[in-house]
Write a structure and sequence with these properties.
The chain has 97 residues and is mainly alpha-helical. It has one domain (2-85): Substrate Binding Domain Of Dnak, Chain:A, Domain 2 (Up-down Bundle). It has three helices and two strands, in the order H-E-H-H-E. A two-stranded antiparallel sheet has the order 1-2. Helix 1 (7-23) runs parallel beside helix 3 (61-81). The chain is elongated and about 45 Å long. The termini are far apart. The relative contact order is 0.21.
Amino acid sequence: MSQDLSNEKVSSYLKKTESALKKIKIAAPENSHLWKIAIDFLEMAKSYFSDANYFFTQGDLVNAFAAVNYAHGWIDAGARMGLFDVEKDHTLFTLAY
């Protein structure tokens, strides 16, 4: 698998996830239980994205690729659950509608 990964491929995933993180707006009402869950999902996504960038700068493409996919997984899960308003963007997000 690692031979299929390139700097360009991992970099494109990082850019897509960075764009997704910039687009997210929390849709859940403040002071609600869902707001806290949305914050947790967003923090998990940001943490994995940070890890992905770290691994990428270290030249560790396998772990960078894994971490960026975890980050985007948290983002997509939040979008599909309605925690995040993503403006019906089916390019950056995997939506149910």
